[in-house]
Amino acid sequence: MMNWDFCKFIAFENRSISIRMKVQMMKTNLLFLLILTTFTLRGQDFNYLKKMERLPFYSVSLSSTETPEGSFYRVNDSLVDFETYERYASAWSNLERCTPCYLQVYDVSDRLLSEGYRHTDCRFGTVKVYYLTGELKAVVRYRAPRFSILLKLFPKRYCSVRHGATQVFDKAGEVIRSETYKKGVLQKKPISDSK
After folding, report:
1. pLDDT tens per residue, range 79-113
2. Which terminus of the chain faces fewer neighbouring Cβ atoms within 10 Å, N or C?
């Protein structure tokens, strides 16, 4: 017959070993997270925005048709040669390469339409929009992560969520509308010029 006190001792020892192991695992995990955070995020804060690759993108519609007579290429429904078509088509791949990047969007006449930080088609940080004549039309601020690793891990969290002041300008450069957002919610009623 087994001694009951001995069984209690064994059960207590197993439980205390289990608790010690759990505490040790928690310490190890905490140390791992601290080391990972230190090496991954150290000194990166918003400096990663300055180092992003600048990529051009054309806001045009493209189509190509194969017929027995040959190939036909269209840009914005206008017939063009293959070299012109390829110039615009190659810039389309920049949207897929933009993970993240500073994307500059042009029209068919090489006029800058907008520029700003993107992660594919998601905007973050400050984005500037221009009139066709080149004057600044709007400055829109979107939520931006403090660290670049967060943008890669959680791109949807920062996808085109307005955050901060948004200003719309007339062609003379005067503010005609101003709004303030916090994480996508309008905070301050729009201020419009009464001109």
Report:
1. 999 999 998 988 888 888 888 889 999 999 999 99
2. N
Q: What is the pTM of this model?
A: 0.67
- d(CA 70, CA 195) in angstroms, rounded, equals 56
97 token code pair: 């390469």
What pLDDT, in 10s, does the model give residues 61-80?
999 999 898 899 999 989 99
For residue 74, what are its two tokens? 């269209």
Three-state SS for the chain is: CCCHHHHHHHHHHHHHHHHHHHHHHHHHHHHHHHHHHHHHHCCCCCHHHHCCCEEEEECCCEEEEEECCEEEEEECCEEECHHHHHHHHHHHHHHHHCCCEEEEEECCCCCEEEEEEEECCEEEEEEEEECCCCCEEEEEEECCCCCHHHHHHCHHHHCCCECEEEEEECCCCCEEEEEEEECCEEEEEEEECCC
171: number of CA atoms within 13 Å, CB side? 4
Nearest CA to 165 out of 194, 136, 126 is that of 126
Asked if residue 118 lies in contact with residue 150, where contact means CB atoms within 8 angstroms, the answer is no
The residue type found at 71 is S
Closest C-alpha among 68, 40, 65, 60 to residue 148: 40
